Amino acid sequence: MASDLWLEASPVDSGKRLDAFLHERMGQFSRSRLQSWIEQGRVLVNGSPEKRSYQIKGAERIHVEPGELAPLRATPEELPLEVLYEDAGVIAINKPAGMVVHAGAGRHAGTLVNALLHRFGKLSTVGGDLRPGIVHRLDRFTSGVILVARTDAAHRNLADQFSSRRVEKVYLALVHGRVKLDQATVTKPITRDPHRRTRMTARLEHGRQAITTYRVLERFDKFTFLEVKIGTGRTHQIRVHLASVGHPVVGDPLYGAPASALARYFLHAHRITFTSPASGEPITVTSPLPLDLQRCLDHLTGHQPPATIPSL
Asked: What predicted TM-score, i.e. pTM, was given to this entire model?
């Protein structure tokens, strides 16, 4: 692994994308590799992480913490894959909990991208060689529906829908405590935790805009079952926002949840609505609650004997 680097931007660099600036200064690394380090939070601009599309102003101090030298191109791998919907431009996959979406942070096999390449062969190239087809992501232990672009045109169309908030993303979450309000919106900005790089935080006054709206579906003695919609797609957004209002997601100790026998956190991407780039028609794709989470919910509602599921 290479040593940390400090770079100084000058006025002649004004207007350049962050990833292009880094590639000019660090030509020994591929642009895809530099982009992955940006997305991992290994590149700080004046002390803060930025998008790879960030435009250099011309006076920044940039810190680069290189990661391990991962493969430059994703490779096909035969893995189980549940297709919920597909047309000429889009594929909707039911991602299982535990599957990483694309390579990075030491994981280069067993990802959704590896499985997609084996099943479909060619996907959009807009995201680069390590992320073919990937328009948005789900955390590793979040299950549910995720969209994949088959063509570059479909990718750009979907990316525009996401950026303009025309895609509706609905999640199901079980959180600790009895949520008082029947519905509410959290708008705290999110940034990387300066003390723990693996975490994000909504406790600081700066960061990227984030919008999370939740609605109570059912209250239990010590838990609340929520429907959650997000207007933005920040890293760990739902987990961070719910923890910030005192209701961490069950099974999520990274954000303050008590220890649980549940093998992962209770967060599921239940439904997504978008416009098909191919037909122009509105499409809604639904992923039912997976068995492990359904059993936990059934236990709380009294429909499942306690012995059949882990204790919450």
From this structure: 0.76
- Per 3-state DSSP, the chain is made up of helix, strand and coil in percentages (nearest 5) of 20, 25, 50
292 is catalytic: no
How open is the CA angle 241-245-251, to the nearest 5 degrees?
70
What is the Cα–Cα distance from 243 to 241, expressed in whole angstroms?
Answer: 5
Domains by residue range for the chain, with CATH = 5-64 (3.10.290.10), 83-164 (3.30.2350.10), 169-270+291-308 (3.30.2350.10)
Mean pLDDT of the chain: 91
Q: Is the dihedral of CA 108, 259, 169, 80 positive or negative?
A: positive
Coil, helix or strand at residue 162: helix
Point out the catalytic residue in the list 139, 152, 160, 182.
139
Q: What's the mean pLDDT in 302-311?
A: 52
pLDDT digits (tens, 9 = 90+) for 7-25: 999 999 999 999 999 989 9
